[in-house]
Amino acid sequence: MKTRAAVAFAAKTPLEIVEVDLEGPREGEVLVEIMATGICHTDAYTLDGLDSEGLFPTILGHEGAGIVREVGPGVTSVAVGEHVIPLYTPECRKCKSCLSGKTNLCTAIRATQGKGVMPDGTSRFSYKGQMLHHYMGCSTFSNFTVLPEIAVAKLRPDAPFDTSCYIGCGVTTGVGAAIWTAGIGVGDTVVVFGLGGIGLNVLQGARMAGAGRIVGVDINPGREAMARQFGMTDFVMSKGMDNVVPHIIELTGGGADYSFDCTGNTDVMRAALECCHRGWGKSVVIGVAESGKEISTRPFQLVTGRVWTGSAFGGARGRTDVPKIVDWYMDGKVVIDPLITHRFPLERINEAFDLMHRGESIRSVVVF
Length: 368
Ligand code: NAD
Ligand code: AHE
Ligand code: ZN
Known about the structure:
Residues 12-366 form the Enoyl reductase (ER) domain. It comes from Glacieibacterium frigidum. One of its GO terms (biological process) is formaldehyde catabolic process. The protein is 25% helix and 23% strand. By secondary structure, the chain is an alpha/beta fold. Helix 7 (224-229) links the parallel strand 11 and strand 12. It is globular, with a radius of gyration of 20 Å. The model has no long low-confidence stretch (mean pLDDT 98). The structure holds nicotinamide-adenine-dinucleotide (NAD), ligand AHE and zinc ion (ZN). Zinc ion is lined by residues 40, 42, 62-63, 169.
C-alpha cells in the first residue's frame, strides 16, 4: 500500500512529506493506522545526527496512537479495529529480561530495532525502490506503520488519540521514573533538572507519590508557570549560575532524596547526582546524551552513599503498565491536556521541531 509519511532522508535536514510504499504485516506483525503522534526530544536528537544508532533514510516518531487495520499470520493478542499505542519498549513476556521481573527492558527484538528493521531483518517501508529504515521499532511519523504484536499496548476506545499518544513516551517515562524507577515516597524531597515534556511528567509523578518539596531547575524561565501547575514547589533558574549544586543543597536542607536529569546534558547529570543527600540520595538519568559523551563524578560521591541509576520508558512494562496509565489519565489522576501545547497536520511537522528547539512548546502533536 501507499502511505503518507515524513521522511528523514539525512541527518540535519528537514523532514520531507512524501508517499511511501508500505508492505503489509508478516507473521506476528500488525498494520496500524496512526491517528496522532507526539514529537519527543529523542526524535530531534536522532534527526540532529547525535544518536550513535541513528540510521538514514528513516521514518522517525515513537510516541503514537492508532487503530489496528490488519493482522499478520499467527497474531493472537490483538484484533482488527482495536486501538493501540506502539511500544518502543516491547513486552514479549518470554525473554530472560521479561521473565526476571527485574526490568522492563525486553530483549526479544532490541537488536533488529537498533538496526532499523523488523524482527525478520527486513524493512516494510520503501520510497522509489529505496529501503527506508524503521525507527525505534515504531515509525509513527507515517500515517500507517507495521509493528510486531509484542510492541503494541491496548488503548481503551474512549481515550482520545491526540492526547493519549503522549503516553507512548513522555508521560510514561516521566511518571514511571518517579513512581517505579525511583519509588518516591510520601514527604520526600525531589529535584528535577529540565522541565520540558519529560521533566513536567516527573513532577506530576512526584506529586502523585506524595513528595514534599519538589524543586524544578531549568535554563528557560518560561517553564516556571507550567511546572508550578504540575507540582513544583520551588523553581531554580540555572542559566548563568556558576554551580547550582551548593544552592540546591542549601535549599533542600542537605540534598535531595531523589533527583532526575531530564536534559540529556552530561554536566547536568553530574549536578543532579551531586545535589543528592549524603548517605542515601538517588539520582535517575532519563536524558539521552549525544554520541560520544560520558558522565563523571568524584567516586567519593558514591562512597558516601549517593546512588546513580537510569530509567528507560519509566521502567514501565509496555503491555502491562501502559493501559494502567491510560486509565489514570481517563480518571483524572494523570494530567495530559495542558502539556499538548501545539497540534499540526503532518505537512507542518518541521514547525514542531523548530518550536521545540526554541523552547516554545512542551509537546507538539501531529494529528493525521
Ligand atoms: P524538552 O526539549 O521538552 O525539554 C528539555 C528541557 O531541558 C527544556 O525545558 C530545556 O530548557 C531544559 N534544559 C536544557 N538544558 C538545560 C540545562 N543545562 N539545565 C537545566 N535545564 C536545561 O525535551 P524532552 O522531550 O523533555 O526530553 C528530555 C530528555 O529526555 C531528552 O534527552 C530526551 O532524549 C530524553 N528522553 C529519555 C527517555 C527515556 O526513556 N530515558 C524518554 C523520553 C525522552
Ligand atoms: N540510541 C541511543 C539510546 C537512546 C535511548 O537511550 N533511548 C531510550 C528511549 S528515549 C525515548 O524518547 C531507551 O529506551 N533506551 C533503552 C534502549 O534499549 O534503547 C544510543 O545511545 O545509542
Ligand atoms: Zn521519546
